[in-house]
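Fig. S4 source data, part A: sequence.
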Amino acid sequence: MNVISSVRNYVSKMIDDSGVGVMKVLLMDKETISIVSMVYAQSELLQREVYLFELLGNFNRDPMKHLKCICFLRPTSENIRLLCEELRNPRYNLYFIYFTNVINKASLKELAEADEHEVVREVQEVFADFLCVNRHLFSYNIIGCSSNGRWNSPQLQRTTLGLTSLLLALKKCPVIRYQASSQMANELAKSVGNLISKEAALFEFRKTDVAPLLLILDRKIDPMTPLLNQWTYQAMVHELLGINNNRVNLSSVPNVSDELKEVVLSAEQDEFYCKSMFMNFGEIGSQIKELMESYQKSAKSTQKIESITDMKTFVENYPAFKKMSGTVSKHVTVVGELSRLVAARNLLEVSEVEQELACQSNHNDALLHVRKLVSSERTSELDAARLVMLYSLKYERNTNNDIPGLLQLLAKRPNMTDSLRKAAHSILQYAGSSVNGVLSNNPENPIAATRRLLQGLKGVENIFTQHQPLLHHILLSLVRGKLKENSYPFIGGSSTYRDKVEDVVVFVIGGATYEESTAVHNLNLNHPEIRIILGSTHIHNTSSYIEEVLAATSGANSPTHKAGGVSKHERYT
């Protein structure tokens, strides 16, 4: 199962169906711009005769009757309204309309009535209503899907539609399990199940011996993982620099060149990134060295141009050489900035204490270390707040905890922001024991006990990567047929396939992390008979997770959509 291939195939089909040898324009909305940009480079689309990229609703466009228009849109009421306006005053020769999900009959009727000039040649549903992050990872870029422990209604609808779209893209009609302790997981499981029943004709796929599985979890079952600093390449870049739709903003890097102020990190377009994205930061240095040596070897070979044959060879190899040059510059800049931030923010010491909080249970030592770092000027405001939040989650039920004292110490920091202070106060309201019942790190939790036992048996190779997210242990139990049905029940009662899985889609309400993505990647490698895909409302780093916590505990109904803004590059202009 590969979500990137699924969406790429849909985009390729749209382009091919509109004709070969003709110039095309791609008309999109703000969300489908992001969907396409995550799976196709602009240069690839240009090679497929797509020469113009436009945003639906921008009516300041000149008519170009020689172009065919491919409309790729989400079937929202606003998009239908804007598309009807477009069809009443068509700027292009013919329109091929593709919706990312099921469109209702009333909307089709509106479009038919608006097509007064009879320019529409096709209207189709292509199921690509999600953002492909990695081959096994997808998201909707929504922060703030809940308020006071309940779904915000628009986000429940968006997530339901997105999940059914993904299942249709993968051609899977799954049995559904959900986290019993989460009302939100229960609601989403029922919502998806009801929509599958309603659209039963679309889900009539060939039966398999083992039914696919959709497992729905709630972020609050493991509130600690998004608060940890990361040490694998992709996760570290997102934590320290931020990855937004495969793009990394490096404009704040000292003395960075103009062409490197924003870079693209895509495993589909960057061989080095594909090979190194799940590696530990310590391994990246040797990989960068090998990349540099390969580049230097290529650079020396281009200097020896002594004949016509040499010139011909140089011209043939120049595109690959230029691409390698760009790859070297990009990754040397990124890794250099990561190294600078690690030193500037004292992250080795901070991360060691984080791992101690996540994986060990020595309260006195932990409190001493957290106090020291929260009081230190070398510790950033974000890192100080995350340490207090981790301590609060770990030792909430310890009668000797000093959560009030740490909160006071945090408030005394001169540059502490209101949002970080509020998040430190709100984390237990979001996912404390009163919410979860039994915390994931409570000794009575069998999964946590298993985790400690495994660590004790095999030891720890790296103190900075001791932590394994709870998702890893849940999926390992699932793969081994030991995931308890009373904790993760089936929609519609027990399933005859409860001890067998092959194709699994696991969805985390409230956000997943790149650490969890790495865990899924490793499980897929170690268990080739199982195929697992991870999805979530958002892919978090600590900063976005704090936004999630604040939105969920403030009673606000308005979520933050990270995909809402359209950058210059996302618009392909």
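Fig. S4 source data, part B ends here. Confidence is low (pLDDT under 50) at residues 438-460, 556-573.
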